[in-house]
Amino acid sequence: MTTEIFSPMPGKIIEVLVSKGDKVIDGQELMIVEAMKMENPICATSDGIVKKIAAGLDDQVEEEQLLFEIE
Question: pTM here?
Answer without folding.
Answer: 0.92
